[in-house]
Amino acid sequence: MPGLIAQVQQTGEELGLPYIAAQADLADPHPMADAEDRPYAETTFRWVDPAYHYWRDRKLALQDTFLSAARLVAEPFYYRDGRLSTWRETGLFAHIDCSSIAAYPLLEEAIITPVHQPRGLMGAIVWCAKEAIGVEQVFAENAARMHALAVRVVATHNEARGRPRNATLSPTLTRREVQCLRWAAAGKTDSEIGIILDLSVSTIRFHLRNAAERLGAKGRAQSIQVAAGLGYVGAA
Hints:
The protein is an alpha+beta fold. It folds into two domains: 2-160, 2-Layer Sandwich (Beta-Lactamase); 175-229, Winged helix-like DNA-binding domain superfamily/Winged helix DNA-binding domain (Arc Repressor Mutant, subunit A, Orthogonal Bundle), CATH 1.10.10. It is 44% helix and 12% strand. It has ten helices and five strands, in the order αβαααββαββααααα. A five-stranded antiparallel sheet has the order 1-5-4-2-3. β4 and β5 (122-129) form a beta hairpin. α1 packs antiparallel against α6. The longest helix has 26 residues, at 135-160.
């Protein structure tokens, strides 16, 4: 893991994006850290404002513009001139307010590499520059390898920390279990699912219990969450 972290910093230095923030699990209030629990933000990475210890801000993942955007797309994207862009035309960034970034005098351009893992686990690496470096060209030439490196870093770190929980399970759900979960995710009650699938309520509950056991989940809500993270239940 130390070698991968060093590679992230080295890549940033080479590309003119030497100021880096990384988090392997956006839902975790604790910063990404080494085996001795020392935050990489203190031991390896630098930030545009050395006086701002962003990794100590427990609310950052909820408020940060780049991380809000990282929740919407799975591919890398870049920031320049007050707006976000990626390889393709997309309307997903339309409602992301970049005004706070644009008003921040220490950050000019950035490349953000989201990492979406199974079971809803999400991380990201943000690579920043204090001055204009021609980020659009840097992105076009290097985003793919930056994203590949981010995936390796986030996946390796999370697995070493035992995330996601029950990741060793390889659930294979039956067709009926998936059908029941999909209707449950749509807000249907057991009785309503029974009517839709022409099955008894006891049979519906049997399938949902079996699905929960296979998924390593506790209860209906967590079963739906895990199933969605594994691609069995589509997004609304």
